[in-house]
Amino acid sequence: MRYDNIRSARAEEGVLRLILLDSSLLEETEGLTGSEFSSPLLGRIFDLLRSRAAEGLSTQLPALAGALEPEEMAHLAWVASPAGKSGQQPQSPWPTTSPSSGRRGCAAAGQMRKLC
Q1: 92 φ/ψ sector (left φ>0, alpha ψ -120 to 50, else beta)
Q2: Model pLDDT, residue 113
Q3: Among 21, 29, 32, 78, which one is most buried in terms of CB atoms within 10 A?
Q4: How far apart are CA 97 and CA 106, in angstroms?
Q5: By the 8 A CB rule, do 38 and 9 touch?
Q6: Dist CA 56 CA 22 (whole Å)
């Protein structure tokens, strides 16, 4: 996956990684929505995690498989992995780009700093 705003997207990946490890961290992101993420995919995953947690459903990686496309699931699995944490580039056959997002993600970055 390629990001327009790499710094924001890496922070967003870190937040998702932490939430996958401990969904109680969603309480620390009150007011944050996926639309504030610089990456539409990461924002959609954040909203999915928030909605599943609110409904009392699992936020574990395998439980998300039905809601995500295979390439999205593969990317999220990479984000959650030690390779994703270290920033190693995934070997993905799906070169995906997202539309330019301008300054989106800046509001999300403040919330994310609290988690990291």
Answers
A1: beta
A2: 54
A3: 32
A4: 19
A5: yes
A6: 14
Q: What tokens were used for 65?
A: 């498989």
Handedness of CA 47, 112, 79, 99 (dihedral sign): positive
Tokens 């710094």 sit at which residue? 7
Do the beta carbons of residue 6 and residue 40 sit within 8 Å?
Answer: no
Q: Which residues contact 100 (CB under 8 A, 6 or more apart)?
A: 4
Contact of 101 with 4, CB cutoff 8 Å: yes
Helix segments in 1-116, DSSP class H: 6-21, 40-54, 70-80, 82-86, 106-115
| Tens-level pLDDT at each residue, the chain (116 residues) | 778 889 999 999 999 999 999 999 999 999 999 999 999 999 999 999 999 999 999 999 999 999 999 999 999 999 998 876 655 555 444 444 444 444 444 455 555 555 55
Collapse the DSSP code of 112 into the 3-class scheme (helix H, G, I; strand E, B; otherwise coil) and give the result.
Answer: helix
